[in-house]
Amino acid sequence: MKSLLNSHIKFYASLCVFVLLGVTIAAFAAAGDGYSKLDQAAFDARSGKLEQAQATLTSLLADKDNAVLAGYELGLIHYEDGELDKAIPFFKAALATAFPGPGSGRDEKALTALLNQETDAAKIRYELGLLCQSQGKQDEAAKLYRDGLSIIASQGATYIGVKKCKSCHFKQWNSWRKTKMALSFESLKPGVKSEEKGKLKFDPNKDYTKDPTCLGCHTSGYGIPGGYVVAADGDKAALKQAKDNAGVTCEGCHGPGSRSIEIQEDIKENKRPYTFAELRAVGFQRTDVRSCTPCHNTSDPGKEPGYHFVYEDNRTEDQHENIELKYRQD
User: Where does the chain have alpha helices with state H?
Assistant: First the structure.
């Protein structure tokens, strides 16, 4: 009887996943053409076709299903070039479209206290960004706006940490952990890469592991629910969360995995075929030049104005081993 009950529980759990997946994929398919245009335009913007990309994204601002993400991508083009004055209007307009109603009325202290919660994570960053902008804190406002839109673009998924990825993708993890991306957090520690730091006018003996200007690119998910946190001494939960997100992890390139892992576990359990669209619909990202340019841009120390990251010249230098995915159909 117990065995039969467990079988029924497994069956209905799988059925729920399929039903929820069907709803998500249906919604994704409804805007599928827009999504493909968005993805292509975002890629083109970082691949030498800027004017073409901007024209496509601007046209998508009139499409209610894609206006928010189109505005986000238009803002990112300028944000990655350090042009905050041009990025902020796009970010702000996109968030105003996503959240057209009145704000919560919370003050800066109350909103800041809510930054780690998953509920209303994007809206909280939007409201806090508005307050920062009104106080002339343009850098903080731009980052909050960008983070809020990043959460929307990831379909509300949160970070789960590299150990969860390792449990199913051990071979990828095992090759990744030896890369510069995996070890990027180590370079923030005193005495590590001293010569390189000296050339870039950094103090080689200084501890940069709590510097917010560094953590955004040397960790994963900093400022996003579930992502890297600066843990207080003795806070075991926060220390674990920090350890799981130190360096550029799987989620640093593929996006937060709280929603895609449910699909991946279902695929593994039922040994069923799947396509990338299923994962894309819940925030999983295909790695391309867009995975790199949030950090490898003109704000990267040592880079000159006008610097352009050449993805094809760098993609094979520091990535994990690509393992054939057994059930992938495309």
Answer: 2-30, 32-45, 50-60, 67-79, 84-98, 108-112, 121-134, 138-153, 162-166, 170-176, 194-199, 212-218, 236-244, 250-254, 260-270, 276-280, 289-292, 311-314
How much is the pTM? 0.85
Contact 298, 305 (CB under 8 A): yes
* 258 touches 156 (CB < 8 A): no
Sign for the pseudo-dihedral over CA of 283, 226, 301, 212: positive
Q: For tokens 């390792």, what's the residue?
A: 166
Is the CB of residue 207 less than 8 Å from the CB of residue 219?
no
Q: Smallest Cα–Cα separation from 115: which of 251, 229, 267, 279?
A: 229
Q: Which amino acid is at 113?
A: A
Q: Rounded to whole angstroms, how far apart are CA atoms 196 and 265?
A: 42
Domains observed in the chain? 12-153 (1.25.40), 157-330 (1.10.1130.10)
For residue range 249-299, list pLDDT tens digits in order: 999 999 999 999 999 999 999 999 999 889 989 989 888 888 899 999 988
- Quickly count: other Cβ atoms within 10 Å of residue 75's Cβ: 27
